Amino acid sequence: MRLTILCENSVAHPFGLLGEHGFACYLETPSGNYLFDTGQGQTLVPNARRLGKDLAAIEALLISHGHYDHTGGLPAVLEIRGSLDVYGHPEMFSVRYWEIEGRRCYLGIPFKRQYLESLGARFHLSSDLVEVGPDIFMSGEIPRRNTFEQGDPQQLTVAGSGAVLRPDPVADDLSMVIRSPKGLILVVGCAHAGLVNILDYVVEQFPDEAIHAVVGGTHLGFAEDGQFEETLRAFKRTGIEKVGVSHCTGLKKAARLSERLGERFFFANVGTVLEA
Predict the structure, then answer these.
(1) Parallel/antiparallel/unpaired status of strands 155-158 and 96-100
(2) Assigned domain for 276 exists
(3) 223: CATH
(4) How many domains does the chain have?
(5) Which of 39, 159, 178, 180 has its CA 20 to 30 Å from the CA of residue 135?
(6) Does the model's pTM come out above 0.90?
């Protein structure tokens, strides 16, 4: 199996690749290829072409959650691929905002569901663990059990059918789990559910299976020191062999992870490949 990062804030190689705030990766398996997230939509297609990854050849598209920087490339993928199974959570089309520097910015999917369906999207929205292909799983909704992963109070969503805004728990935050010859590979889009919550859930759902690697946006860029230390303890407790960070991990937290994890750490930026 081969996992290639197509969209991320930075690039691993200097020749023709582009960075953007967002995340997407391309998974190649013996039974078919899959795309996880689509970034903002500005770099997905050129990076895929530069890296030789055929978006027309994917079996399905998996969406981690309904934020613009993970779903903006949906139309481009559908225009290239045509009819396509798209997996996500029932709340992925929620109306969302981010309050930052005195402004309220729209944060949700930039497109209506009906428009995406007109381009060929066949949505499969579930809160449960779903096997989307041989040894490829969408996690389902992650239970929020610990007290130190609280989410981001600046992210808001509309409550019910009214216009009242409330803090957004991002309940649709899903992860991809791959069963590989080296063990499980956990791919996170932004880990809004909390990386420790996600790890604990995966251990429960896949008992007696070791986690080989965690790849993607960990949201640790917004974490306090206590949460950061608890996350490191979870890495040790679960015996994870590789940690590849992207996107919302943030440069400062990525540097700290590199110092603490040593050779187990890598930057999962555009062009990075993980084979298992």
Answers:
(1) antiparallel
(2) no
(3) 3.60.15.10
(4) 1
(5) 39
(6) yes
